[in-house]
């Protein structure tokens, strides 16, 4: 199984300040079709996870452009350029290169 | 609008069975794989299993923790997927989500249902 490791576990942020979350996979997520199978989800309190970023860097429909994803191979980053109060929740990276799909342990973003 | 709605959760005794349904609308169900993901209270999501579509022979796959006890199926005429859960254990207690993944190159898990709670307890 591919192990996904996220950091930090908790991220207190000041509104308007940037934030960054790292995700590392135990093996490359590059598919033979050329796509890299890494996505980011945000789970707001009491809700199901919602897609933010697919294929490393593609923002989902309706996701603000303050969110950006980058990386390749085994190292990935989610950045929020200026955190807003509505961004609080737990962020997960997930690989779907192969089953079992596996998730990072999550990063809880909260407002300072 | 893409929608996935889970149903069938509830309280069940250890060793019992439960069948969850994932009713979908707003997209071509037959063109998608359905993945089931669960989340125990205070924990991260855990992939449970998936079923591909007809062109992919309805191929199924399961997490090691549920293999031999859970089974995923689908009814394309009803745009619905199912998760049959047998020999339930206390550690199966979680919110169960169904999710969609298109069967195309460069696809990814995009939409999630709202989840249904399964509690295994005596």
Radius of gyration of chain B: 14 Å
Biggest interface, CB < 8 A: A-B, 23 and 22 residues
Silhouette of chain A: globular
Sketch the topology of chain B as an H/E string, one letter per element: EEEEEEEEEEE
Q: Estimate percent helicity of chain B.
A: under 10%
Radius of gyration of chain A: 13 Å
User: SS-based structural class of chain B?
Assistant: mainly beta
| Major β-sheet annotation of chain A | 7 strands, mixed
Order of helices and strands of chain A: EEEEEEEEEEE
Q: Kindly report how far apart the N and C termini of chain B lie.
A: 40 Å
Alpha-carbon distance between the two ends of chain A = 36 Å
Which structural traits does this protein have?
heterodimer; A: 112 residues; seven-stranded mixed sheet; 11 strands; B: 122 residues; 52% strand
How would you characterize the overall build of this protein?
The complex is a heterodimer of chains A (112) and B (122). Chain A is built from no helices and eleven strands. With 112 residues, chain A is mostly beta strands. The radius of gyration of chain A is 13 Å and the shape is globular. The model of chain A has no long low-confidence stretch (mean pLDDT 97). Chain B is mainly β and 122 residues long. In chain B, strands 2, 4, 5, 6, 9, 10 and 11 form a seven-stranded mixed β-sheet that branches. In chain B, strand 7 and strand 8 form a beta hairpin. Chain B is globular. Chain B starts with a strand and ends with a strand.
Task: Describe the secondary-structure layout.
The complex is a heterodimer of chains A (112) and B (122).
Chain A: E1 4-7, E2 10-13, E3 19-25, E4 38-43, E5 50-54, E6 58-59, E7 67-72, E8 75-80, E9 89-95, E10 102-103, E11 107-111
Parallel strand pairs in A: 2-11
Antiparallel strand pairs in A: 1-3, 3-8, 4-5, 4-9, 5-6, 7-8, 9-10, 9-11
Chain B: E1 3-7, E2 10-12, E3 18-25, E4 32-39, E5 46-51, E6 60-62, E7 70-75, E8 80-85, E9 94-102, E10 109-112, E11 116-120
Parallel strand pairs in B: 2-11
Antiparallel strand pairs in B: 1-3, 3-8, 4-5, 4-9, 5-6, 7-8, 9-10, 9-11
């Amino acid at each position: 199984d591919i192990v996904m490791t996220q950091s930090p576990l908790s991220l207190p942020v000041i509104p308007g300040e940037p934030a960054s979350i790292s995700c590392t996979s135990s093996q490359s997520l590059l598919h033979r079709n050329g796509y890299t199978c890494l996505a980011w989800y945000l789970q707001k309190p009491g809700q199901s996870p919602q897609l933010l970023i697919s294929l490393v860097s593609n923002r989902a429909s309706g996701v603000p452009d303050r969110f950006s994803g980058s990386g390749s191979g085994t190292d990935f980053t989610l950045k929020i350029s200026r955190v807003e109060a509505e961004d609080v929740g737990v962020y997960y990276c997930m690989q779907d290169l192969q089953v079992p799909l596996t998730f990072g342990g999550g990063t809880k973003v909260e407002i300072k | 609008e893409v929608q996935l709605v889970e149903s069938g959760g509830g309280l069940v005794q250890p060793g019992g069975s439960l069948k969850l349904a994932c009713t979908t609308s707003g997209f071509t169900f037959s063109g998608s794989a359905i993945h089931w993901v669960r989340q125990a209270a205070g924990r991260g999501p855990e992939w449970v299993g998936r079923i591909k579509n007809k062109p992919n022979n309805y191929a199924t796959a399961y997490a090691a923790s549920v293999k031999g006890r859970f089974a995923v199926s689908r009814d394309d005429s009803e745009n619905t997927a199912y998760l049959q859960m047998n020999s339930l254990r206390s550690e199966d207690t979680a919110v169960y989500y169904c999710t969609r993944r298109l069967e195309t190159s460069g696809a990814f898990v995009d939409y999630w249902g709202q989840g249904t709670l399964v509690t295994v307890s005596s």
